[in-house]
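Go through this chain for my students:
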Amino acid sequence: MFSKLVLSALFLFSSLLLAANGDSTNAAIKQHAFVGAETCGMCHKSEKQGKQLDIWKASKHAQAYKALESPEADKIAKEKGFDTPAAKTQACLKCHVSGEGVDASLLGPKFKMEDGVQCETCHGAGADYKTLKVMKDKKLAEENGLVIPGDVKTFCVKCHNSESPTYKEGWDAAASWEKIKHTIPAATN
């Protein structure tokens, strides 16, 4: 019993010491701040960038939060046993809003939850990779929080799954991706 107590105290002390000294393991778990679609759109709206912002604005993802403000969404939330409106229910917000549940200090001044499922939902919080210098170096951007989703189906089922009350069995991730894909066009000379 005494040895467990000593080991626990040593572990706690070591952890505090490492944290105070800025150990590199803390950098690995750093949380990145969210900047919002407006900030991302400053660079991702041009023809050269494939008009990515326009693609997002025209998508259901951009309307995801607004969908929660509807009487139908409130009815679904109530049927699921929630006593809060859908737009205030964490079980709904977790898939309808970027940055849901993160500390408010990680939400930048231009970030708006009302923008729904925005860039950072899929690509990671962008405060540390948003600059052109970082974005020009894919490896550096990824080291600073950029997420490049791999397999669309595997990635998208985090929200598009049977836990969602409006999920339809047989949902086709590939067909849905075709509606929202936003690749950067290849440069032509």
About this structure: The first helix runs from residue 2 to 20. The mean pLDDT is 85.
